[in-house]
Amino acid sequence: MLRKLALLAACIAVLGSQSLAQTYKDPHAPVEARVQDLLKRMTLAEKLGQLRSDNKPSVYEGPLQTIGCGGLGIWTLRTLTPEQLATKLNEIQTMSLKNRLGIPIMPYEEALHGLIQNGHVSFPQAIAFAATWDPDFVHQCAEAIASETRSIGIRQVLSPVINVDRDARWGRMEETYGEDPYLTGKTAVAFVSAFEKAGVAATPKHFVANYGDGGRDSNSVHISERELRDIYLEPFRMAFEDGGASSVMVSYNAINGIPCASNHWLLTDVLRKEYGFQGFAISDWGAANNVYEMFHQARDYEHTAALELNAGMDCEDPTIFVFGKPLDDAVRDGLISMKTIDESVSRVLRIKFKLGLFDDRMVDPAKAAALANSQPHRDLAEEAARRSMVLLKNENATLPLSKNVKRIAVFGDIADGPTPLGGYSGELDNLPSLLDGLKQKQPETQFDFVPGCTISPDGALPAIPTEALQTPDGQPGLKAEYFTNIDLKGEPAFTRVDPSVSFDWGQKAPKEGFPLENYSTRWTGFLTAPKTSTYTIAATSDDGMRVWINDKLIADQWSTHSAQTVLAHINLVAGQRVPIKVEYFQGTGDAIAKVGWVDEQAGNGFINQVSSAANAADCSIVFAGIREGEGQDRAYLGLPGNQVDVIKAAAASGKPVVVVLVAGAPVTMEGWVDQVPAILDAWYPGEEGPKALADTLFGDSNPGGKLPVTFPRTVGQCPLYYNYEPTGRGYGYVDSSGDPLFPFGHGLSYTTFEYSNLKISGSYPYQVSVDVSNTGQKAGDEVVQLYIHQEVSSVIRPIKELKGFERIALQPGEKKTVSFPVGFAQLSMWDAQMHRVVEAETFDIMIGSSSADIRQKGTVTVSRLIKDH
Predict the structure, then answer these.
(1) For position 641, what pLDDT does the model report?
(2) CB of 130 within 8 A of CB of 182?
(3) CA–CA dist 393, 660 (Å, integer)
């Protein structure tokens, strides 16, 4: 009997164990129960595997099938079609079923304004999303991007960029939502929530304040806690608390002497304890390394790993380095407790469960192919381009152009190539040009395009042509030797003749079967100039490059960096053959190697062509752009190259000139802004931008976008933003006005709007309303903007702060009432003790069409101190 009871007890124990074993696999069990059940079954190696990611099959495939692996960067798969990629990710997830516990991997990609994968929709750049001032519409666009992302099997996006950018010199402004924390936060919530709803983890970045003095990327930042909270942290708080973001990317830089990647106050006290963030924190690409290599905060990588994990950073992306053996060593040596390890692993697992990865990790490749860049999504991208366009200037009703115009001169080489999409864009075949959009819109109009108006010489110049180059053995082009190391050592892996040095390989290899990273190339031969002249030589590379001409080193940037251009000037004699040697190495990331030139004496002839074309036409359109992007901060904000000369030459014709800016950041317009009657900011308008731009220029679309950033008059004003604090002196300069060229919130229309009947109702909290009427002859959109200023405060406050906005559409003669709540969120501030309060004071209520165009004013008075609760 006792033996039977013992056997029965053993069976019950086994059954109970089996039942318990299914808890983390049970899709109906609470997420937290599944996390804790799985966590207690994991070995240390399995736990640490969840804190790592990689993009190389040789690195992730083994762990994926044994101990598991946390994340998978898929940028090396960008050449695959949507169907092929979905199939590939299914294969990878099938591998994950083989690890002991069947823990899925998290594939991730970039999706700033469309998924960066072959064949997916490209919306206007992020700054253009902000220029719509329409979070509900941005949410629709993000839903489309998220649906394409989810259908292909990608479950995390390293987007959006929600750094508040108050300095136009920072090269990454195009990726942001502008200079205001409230507009940025509202747009971020719209974007983030769409992805989270679709089962894709959004990753707001870069946490936090990712540029420093001079507008320089990732430089150390010294800032008061009040400004940090008011301006730079606020959009992140909104993205976490209101948008539900599942992850966050920790930035490269240091804040007040502590690297963000090892900043316990930032990653634990604020992010987790204060904001209640339940997701996981990943490093920006080099942020984990920076703590040791750049900031020297730790003595070695082992102590670096301990600093970062103990501070609250959970994962290293995109490679297993600091969180590889150094993390193992730190755990072995007791620098990290098991409690800390479990907390980080729990955060990763929690999101994998939340997203449904354990229960539904496979996708339908056919569905992914059908959804990618589908017609409804392209239609939405076109509407986004329309809504984002900002009419900066329009004297004499120059715009819209008459559809009866016979002849238009067009300048600007960016108009004649594939439409510029901006940074972090996917690859699209047969992308039309902006000029194509004009021609399709107006087939009866003659468009005289004059090439030669470029952003050069500040950017990459036209490649030195093959006919000017000769290999050592007399063939056209240059002898190219490719090495499988970055030091040009040993025998080359292969040798070939390249027609010129003009390569933008991106994430591709120079040749099938050759490495994607850590290689070098040497090009040698002779250069022969077609005419005697002074030539500008441009060496553009990502990463290192050296150039010798006639045995003289004229360009030397032998270091790891994003795309940069070095210029040199050299005298060449017609027909004289001189040696040329170019050396290049590719570390990681994008691969770019270009050597271009231009004859400096050819400029006058081109300007004569511009004048001739402008005189012969009824009007001119000049498409103008800038050099910008990650690692491309600007010391000068004017239009580079010969663009200003072209604008002036076209304006001298006396015919109307329209300047179309195709850029993601402000430009200064000294010397030409008063010479042209119309300026339209098209940003980077996405794949459907040509249609939207043509419709806007010819009046079938009425621009209703507003500036999310301030346009300075001169770079000397930077940083320049609308919500500055009162000064003890003045705002101007001895040689320039302190006022902006175009203020934050500015944007004109082809119609006019009248504001009236401001009403303030209730006693705290208040309701503020205003009537807005379309008093013109065209239907149009207006963005109604609410600004607030505290008249007297214990801590000085900005002269005005955006606290509400709404975009409305009005037919001619139509009137609408717009209402805004005014309560704690709109009136509170951080007091001297860093408590969030509304003080018992009077507040100015300002409603208008921009930060500088206030149409209605009122006040509210709060009778008692109100504390955050």
Answers:
(1) 87
(2) no
(3) 11
Are 76 and 340 contacting, i.e. CB atoms less than 8 angstroms apart?
no
Q: What is the mean pLDDT of residues 87-91?
A: 98
Predicted confidence at residue 202, as pLDDT, reads 98
The percent of residues in the chain predicted with pLDDT above 90, rounded, is 87
245-254, 532-541, 852-861: the lowest-pLDDT one: 532-541
> What pLDDT digit, counting tens, does each position of 814-866 carry?
999 999 999 999 999 999 999 999 999 999 999 999 999 999 999 999 999 99
Looking at residues 557-565, what average pLDDT do you find?
A: 84
Those residues with Cβ within 8 angstroms of residue 390's Cβ, 6 or more apart along the chain or in another chain: 131, 680, 681, 683, 703, 705, 706, 707, 746, 747
What are the CA-CA distances from residue 855 to residues 468, 757, 785, 799, 845 (Å)? 62, 11, 10, 16, 11
Instruction: Name the residue among 542, 535, 505, 539 with its Cα closest to residue 523.
Output: 539
Inter-residue contact 623 to 415 (CB < 8 Å): yes
Q: Are 422 and 174 in contact (CB under 8 A)?
A: yes
Q: Which has the closest alpha carbon to 766: 824, 822, 818, 817?
A: 822
- For residue 682, the one-letter residue type is A
The crossing angle, in degrees rounded to 10, of helices 181-197 and 135-151 is: 30
- Residues constituting the chain: 869
Say if strands 494-498 and 254-255 run parallel, antiparallel, or are unpaired.
unpaired
- Separation of alpha carbons 560 and 850, rounded Å: 43
Can you tell me which residue has the tokens 């270091």?
Answer: 559
Helices (H), 333-417: 338-354, 365-371, 375-388
**Residues sharing a CB contact under 8 Å with residue 12, sequence separation 6 or more, in sequence order:** none
CA-closest candidate to residue 179, choices 231, 228, 224, 112: 231
pLDDT at 353 over 70: yes
If one compares 513 and 186, the residue with the highest pLDDT of the two is 186
Phi, psi at residue 757, to the nearest 5°? 60, 50
What Cα–Cα distance (Å) separates residue 654 from each residue in 95, 175, 220, 396? 68, 37, 49, 14
pTM for this prediction? 0.90
Q: How does the average pLDDT of the chain come out, rounded?
A: 94
Tell me the torsion sign for CA atoms 358, 364, 367, 373: positive
Q: How far apart are CA 469 and CA 567, in angstroms?
A: 19
pLDDT, tens digit, 9 for 90 and up, residues 712-748:
999 999 999 999 999 988 888 999 899 999 999 999 9
The pLDDT assigned to 318 comes to: 85
3 state DSSP class of 260: helix
Inter-CA distances, 497 with 287, 466, 489, Å = 39, 11, 19
Measured distance CA(822)–CA(862) in Å, rounded: 11
Instruction: Annotate 4-71 with DSSP letters as a single string.
Output: HHHHHHHHHHHHHHHHHHTGGG-TTS-HHHHHHHHHTT--HHHHHHTTBEES-HHHHHHHHHTT--SE
Q: Which two tokens stand for residue 486?
A: 């970055």
Going from the C-alpha of 65 to that of each of 105, 109, 457, the distances in angstroms are: 10, 22, 51
Alpha-carbon Rg for the chain, nearest whole angstrom, is 29
